[in-house]
Amino acid sequence: MTDLVDLAIEAHGGLNRFNQFSFLTARLHQGGVLWGLKGKPTVLENCSVKVDLKREWVSHWPFAPTQHRSAFTPDRVAIETPEGTVVEELIEPRHSFEGYRMETPWSDPQVAYFAGYTMWTYLTSPFILKRPGVASKELEPWHENGKTWRRLHVTFPHEIATHSTEQTFYFDETGILVRHDYEVDIQGRNAAARYLSDYVSVEGILLPGKMRIFPRGSDNIALAEPLIVSVDLSDFRFE
Question: In terms of pTM, does the model score above 0.70?
């Protein structure tokens, strides 16, 4: 059987091609119940995102209703003016979420931390599976809506900020990523399933145009509602 990591990476354009680029920028429209629960229903509803493909750094802008932008790394996150003046910052930002639940409101730097590691994970997958310290093991196939998907159980090292240490990636018969499961550690470890669709080819790399995140039940089946987060991406550009 073909190694699933290699199959997936080749299906999305190949690691050699991906490694030719340093940054990925896109337009982003987000919805879902999460943002209102956090007291930030429109702050990143329509924005741009830039992801460093070599290291874990991300920026979103504007943080509505201002023109401020974020600068995220795992150890520090800041909200800055367009000129680079720091408005707010968090050092060791993950510690600020201790004791938080799904309904706990977030500050703008906390939004920037969550959105930062989320989009970095999403926009570097499945290539992230080849990063140092990332371990994976294929699980038994998963059957859903008449389809059979191959699955990878993935363990991330502590230096990568992401939803949870252990996650599961689902791939169709061609190696395309179609579902991604995790627990959101920073809001009470709620279980979620992310579905990906509307892929587009950009500079030879396949990228999802739509993502929809739903709660995941104890039986591993995604619930139809509520829609936790919706993500629509467009205007992709590699640098």
Answer: yes
Mind listing the pLDDT tens digit for each residue in 159-203? Answer: 999 999 999 999 999 999 999 999 999 999 999 999 999 999 999
Name residue 114's amino acid.
Answer: F
The CATH number that applies at residue 198 is 2.50.20
Q: Is residue 226 part of a domain?
A: yes
Q: Which amino acid is at 193?
A: A
- 209 found inside a domain: yes
Flag whether 227 is in a domain: yes
DSSP line for the chain: ---HHHHHHHHTT-HHHHTT-SEEEEEEEEESSHHHHTT-SSTTSEEEEEEESSSS-EEEE--TTS--EEEEETTEEEEE-TT--EEEEEESGGGGGTT--TT----HHHHHHHHHHHHHHHHHTTGGGGSTT-EEEEEEEEEETTEEEEEEEEE--TTS-SS-SEEEEEE-TTS-EEEEEEEEGGGT-EEEEEEEEEEEEETTEEEEEEEEEEEB-TTSPBPS----EEEEEEEEEE-
